[in-house]
Amino acid sequence: MGEIKTILDVDGGIGQVAVERALAEVRAGRPLIIKAGRSHLLMICVEALDERHIAKLEALAKRRARLLLPAPRLRRMGLERTRPGAIALPSIDLKRVETLALDVSARIDAPVASLGRLDLAALELASLALVLPAVIALPVSVRDVEGEGLVRVEAAAIEGYRRLRLHDLHIVGRAPVPLEGAPETEFVIFRGGEGLRDQVAIMVGKPDLSQPVTVRLHSACLTGDLFGSLKCDCGDQLRHTAQHMAQNGGGILLYLDQEGRGNGLSNKMRAYKLQSQGFDTYDADEVLGFGHDQRGFDFAAEMLKQLGVTKVQVMTNNPVKIGALSEAGLEVVSDRRILGRTTDQNVRYLASKRDRAGHFIEMDDLTVQGGKDER
To answer: Which of 46, 53, 300, 356 could be joined to 134 by an S-S link, Cβ 3.0–4.6 Å?
Structure first.
């Protein structure tokens, strides 16, 4: 057993398992312990907090509890800051916590302290779990939580998790799946990356891998891809890409599990609610504590490499995707725009992507086609 443990320690296996268990606890709304040396931090995400939890936390906190918030949320509350911070909670008042974490009109009501290593690991765990990036944290001793059965995870394991998971990406299945407009298509399923979520490479036609391959990195959009939401152009981009590849020598469409620009589906719905109140897509995300884009594309480049791709022609409007593939070692030979229809409901969203994130979208592309759609 000692030999097995040593092998697992070398490749990060034990640490990865601990992080994955911790992620399950976060998503289930349970508290857990992050540790480094003799220091221990108890954390619970704000979205899971209720009066039942508060009674137990107050007994442990001894007026030392803090609310950890990312920099975008602090900026929305009037504090010019580029780093996350902590607000002291002499008592854990649920209404105050929810106001500071979510209220659109909230303002900073106390000094904001810098975060330590364990605090930063707690926010990283919330990010990996795709929950609201707001955490209640309090220092504890081993004796404080003895017998509570809390999952424990090393800060170092959380810090290295994204990098280690990238190298574990591997193919777990593949099969032909004919599509409308692209009948010669194979789905290749990869597992690994953050949270062990499955990622899909859709091989359209028979692309010549010795030549530059047409590729698109498409982040999953449940509302647009599946239900035809008028708030975005994602579904149109997805289908137009597959058809273009089928008619032009084939290609590879990567369908990536990165809903809501990497914020997760529940946070995407929170952002949509804010958009219905007048916020644009980026301001809505900032209210929730997110930056402009939480996605990473290094694992997408790894998928392409495992499929034998070295040179790409990218179908995208997003300069970040182009840069990410190039930085990952793929030769980007060219890039091509891919546009969907514009509607009264998505024209502001598309303009925001152009003006605030530098997407390659021309003014003429934002002319609403066909007026309002009453669906």
So the answer is: 46
Domain for residue 299, yes or no?
yes
Maximum CA pair distance of the chain?
69
295 catalytic per annotation:
yes
Given the residues 81, 270, 295, 365, the one annotated as active site: 295
Q: Among 162, 179, 195, where does a domain finish? A: 162
Which of the given ranges, 65-69, 139-143, 347-351, has the highest pLDDT on average? 65-69
Quick check: pTM over 0.90? no
Spatial CA neighbour of 267 closest among 285, 291, 283, 293:
285
Residues 6+ apart with CB under 8 A from 61: 89, 92, 138
Q: In what order do the strands lie in the sheet with 112-113?
A: 112-113, 85-89, 65-69, 135-140, 39-45, 32-36, 152-154
73 is an active site residue: no
Same domain, 179 and 150: no
Examine the domain organization and report whether 206 and 223 are in the same domain: yes
57, pLDDT greater than 60: yes
Indicate whether 228 and 320 sit together in one domain. yes
Q: What's the rounded mean pLDDT across residues 215-223? A: 96
